[in-house]
Design a protein that fits this description.
The strands form three sheets. Strands 9, 10, 11, 12, 13, 14, 15, 16 and 17 form a nine-stranded antiparallel sheet that branches. It contains 15 helices and 17 strands. Helix content is 28%, strand content 21%. Helix 1 packs across helix 11.
Length: 459
């Protein structure tokens, strides 16, 4: 039996309030609609991507936004914690159904020092790090951690901003002058005074991430480990699943489950990790950071998993059972940055799925993503070569391509090779199948473009 507006009589949640109206909010709303839920958004840009799917309230209209929704979530971890705490308090009073994730998750994610401290408390390995409040402390950190190091603001910053790679002593003064305003709260990215954090460099073979969803009853479901490649601190490509990582999956799932349970988390979370080797040559994982929200490295799940990360986040927020997270088909997701490609050329590639964010073109701006899932997995790298060839902004993808390989092949780095995609697409498609595992032959590239997932921001 249903009411006149087609909602089940037992359904107490009808509208989800989302803090933020970017592409993540848009894709959350897309996932909510088939389940019978509407979304509204708190966002100062009235023409944001999410405006296609629901009413947008300005930050000065907070009370109206609250009145319009039954339960709340967010799409961006730098949301003001005061707003999140206010929404969480409404659920305690019984006037609203909840705020997910909880405020503590944002408090941790917004402060790299608290985040690293939490990892250490939970016995999750990280790179060595030190607090930096002065140039003298920075010099001490360089001495104790050894160069190179990565200097970061402990608060604020994203997509590579607010970071500086110090490779030699002459970089120390330059790095300090570039980031010192964060310590006093004068920096554009860090209006609240906060120390810097110096992170020691650990050699790693590749960067991976794991995404999981946690329900209100504590159930946790994890997606496959995926491999990520960055360019200037911005995610360029994700391969799902990450080949040759089955032996690391349990460590990753244990880590993210421990973090989520520790925080009493509800919703989807991403945990970014580095694959390194111990003194015996065995692989192990180092935690980099959490993202308390749906994540760019999980966009492949829209087509590539039984239940997408966006649907599972909605399910958790409205207290529905979580969906199956199994991978249904290997996939590669590429971000479209700055300039839109010819959509006809993209969709002419078998297995290409195009997602526009309806944003204006701007340098290094994420304006769309494309997921490749050809019917025959053997054609995945051929499709990748074709796609890179038609992208106007190749975000570093024209340097090297790495193939999909079997688990056995992934264990033989001595066979590694790479293919230049500035050759004809046909040559790239042929040669790329002769290449070897992604990440294993890319150490020089990793140390430059992905040095602990950071580069000096020069925007």
């Amino acid at each position: 039996m249903t009411t006149a507006n087609a909602y089940p009589v037992t359904q107490t949640i009808r509208t989800i309030g989302i803090l933020g109206g970017g592409q993540l909010g848009m894709m959350l709303a897309e996932a909510a609609m088939p389940l019978g839920y509407q979304c509204v958004f708190l966002e100062d840009n009235a023409d944001c991507p999410a405006s296609l799917y629901g009413k947008v309230f300005h930050s000065e209209q907070l009370e109206a936004f609250i009145a319009a929704a039954d339960v709340f979530t967010l799409e961006f971890e730098n949301t003001p914690t005061a707003t999140v705490e206010q929404l969480a308090s409404l659920s305690k009073s019984g006037s609203k159904q909840g705020m997910f994730p909880p405020p503590i998750a944002l408090d941790i994610a917004q402060d790299r020092l608290k985040e690293k401290g939490m990892f250490n408390e939970l016995d999750i390995a990280t790179v060595p790090f030190m607090v930096v409040n002065s140039e003298a402390e920075l010099k001490q950190a360089c001495d104790e951690l050894g160069l190179p190091i990565v200097l970061k603001t402990s608060r604020g910053g994203y997509d590579g901003k607010g970071q500086f790679v110090i490779k030699e002593e002459s970089d120390i003064t330059v790095a300090w002058h570039e980031l010192k305003d964060a310590v006093s709260g004068k920096g554009a990215l860090t209006p609240t005074p906060a120390p810097l954090i110096a992170e020691g460099f650990i050699n790693f073979s590749r960067e991976v991430s794991i995404i999981a969803a946690r329900a209100q009853n504590g159930q946790v479901r994890c997606y496959d480990l995926v491999e990520n490649h960055h360019h200037n601190g911005i995610l360029a490509k994700t391969r799902a699943p990450a080949v040759g990582t089955s032996h690391l999956f349990q460590q990753a799932t244990d880590a993210i489950t421990t973090v989520m349970n520790h925080l009493g988390y509800v919703g989807v979370m991403a945990l970014e990790l580095f694959v390194s080797k111990d003194t015996r040559g065995n692989d192990y994982l180092l935690a980099n950071e959490i993202a308390p929200r749906v994540h760019n490295s999980g966009h492949w799940s829209i087509e590539g998993a039984i239940t997408s990360q966006f649907e599972n986040h909605i399910r958790a927020v409205v207290n529905l059972p979580l969906g199956d997270t199994d991978n249904v088909h290997p996939a590669i997701m590429l971000n479209v940055l700055g300039q839109y490609p010819d959509i006809s050329a993209v969709l002419n590639i078998d297995g290409a799925h195009y997602h526009s964010y309806h944003k204006a073109e701007r340098e290094d701006r994420k304006i769309a993503h494309i997921t490749l899932m050809p019917n025959d997995v053997a054609d995945l790298d051929i499709a990748l070569a074709k796609l890179v060839a038609v992208l106007p902004n190749k975000v570093g993808l024209d340097k090297k391509l790495a193939p999909t390989v079997t688990e056995d092949q992934a264990k033989t780095p001595e066979q590694t090779a790479s293919t230049e995609t500035d050759q004809a697409v046909e040559d790239a498609a042929i040669n790329v199948k002769k290449s070897q595992p992604e990440g294993l032959g890319d150490i020089d590239q990793l140390s430059n473009d992905q040095l602990l997932n950071t580069v000096k921001a020069q925007k």
